[in-house]
Amino acid sequence: MSHRRSIQRWGTVAAAAAGLLVSGALQAQIRIAVIDPLSGPFANFGQFGLKHFQLAAADVNARGGVLGGQKIEIVPFDGKGSPQESMSAAQAAIGQGIHFVASSSSNVVTALVDTAGKVAARDPARSFLVLNYAGADPEQTNNGCSFWHFRFYPHSDMQMDAITQHLAADTSVKKVFIIGQDYSFGKQVSRAAKEMIAKKRPDVQIVGDDLHPLGQVKDFAPYVARIAASGADTVITGNYGNDLALLVRAAKDYGLKTKFYTYYAGGLGAPTAIGESGIDRVRMISEWHPNIAGDKARNYATAFKQKAAVDFYYLRVNTLLDMLVKAMNTAGTTDPVKVGLALEGMRFQSDTGEVTMRRDDHQILMPLYISSFVKADGKTVKYDLEGSGIGTKTDLAVPARQTEMPTTCNMRRPV
User: 12 pLDDT exceeds 90?
Assistant: First the structure.
């Protein structure tokens, strides 16, 4: 369903959100746990995602809810960015009768999927689906696939294929430095970048490949100095949250003039940290950005920012909840097995075009965009990021069907 909604309609949505967040005035009958870091170095990132879920749920409720009027409640749990803490949070959630768990980081999602499989085998009545909205490790929908896991976000290889398609067409790119966080996603980004650049632009040199501790580096100056010393003209990074903001801030302070290809430059805090130093140099891949031609999410994005005091970013969260509601209505129940079967193969008209939840591996196929940071001019680039005066313009639009990649998944279903 399109999110072309008027600001007046948002008053109803905002009131519903207030009920969820403050008074519990809505009679919540269907609960969805969101397990993300709500404390620690990535707390701002977790709270950012949580706001998207809360307001998207309020929007669903304002449109009539699910299964004839039942309401959705978002229940936050602090996973602290730790797989162990997140598994404990999942146990607490299912102890409260929750059957749907959303999360983001790849290492956490992997742990939650493992927990979901064990719970389903031991006690089917407590089964739950893991709704992955940002974990991008390709293995999660390849050899590590599970019926209990649905990914509403293109995995890192799908995104890197688009990034390297754009990079390969830029003849000024000669030397690439790869830097990322030292966990599964960062390693997958590094692997995919090297493999795909070698195939598409064998003349390009990989002059550096660094991994750093996740959420622990306070000063990226030494990493930036290595990038500068390498002679790189282009940097590829999968960093997110503070690790991205601190990296680009250090690059700005150093005066580094390289191009940056990023996964999350439009995310919380990054546009402000990058500022004007990113003009014509920073590129990001995303499923949506504020200056897409014919943007159908604009009214929702404007109202979201007015209510949440942060930019709208995760269009995929709206897609996730809308598809989940459709699956529940199709199945006529909130039973996780029946809802999962209804999600398999689902086609859904999102605000950027049709998306598909591939049955084979539970990997969503959705349009992707590569955009560049440019000066917002109020005309061709009308909307800026975080009030920075810096906007985005589309460099490459990739239709959903062109993002599809083979899978090695051998799905085992409970029925």
Answer: no
Q: Which residues pair with 129 in a beta bridge?
A: 100
Pairing state of beta strands 71-78 and 28-36?
parallel
Q: Do the domains spanning 7-154+294-365 and 157-286+367-403 agree at the CATH topology level?
A: yes
What is the arithmetic mean of pLDDT over 179-191?
94
Q: Which residue has the tokens 């950005």?
A: 289
Is pLDDT at 139 greater than 60 in this prediction? yes
- Using 50, 70 and 90 to split pLDDT, how confident is the model at 249? confident
For the chain, the maximum distance between any two Cα atoms, rounded to a whole number of angstroms, is 62
Assign residue 354 a region (left: φ > 0; alpha: ψ between -120 and 50; beta: otherwise): beta
* Residue 345: pLDDT over 80: yes
- Select from 343, 340, 362, 364 the least CA-distant residue to 353: 364
Which tokens go with 249?
Answer: 């801030």
The full set of domain ranges for the chain reads 7-154+294-365, 157-286+367-403
How many CB atoms neighbour CB 229 within 10 A?
A: 11
* Residue 254: half-sphere exposure toward Cβ, Cα within 13 Å: 20
Residue 411, phi then psi, degrees to nearest 5: -65, 130
Q: Which CATH superfamily is domain 7-154+294-365 in?
A: Response regulator (3.40.50.2300)
Tokens 């008027």 belong to which residue? 6
> Is a pLDDT exceeding 60 seen at residue 405?
yes
- CATH number corresponding to 157-286+367-403: 3.40.50.2300
Does the structure show a pLDDT above 50 at 174? Answer: yes
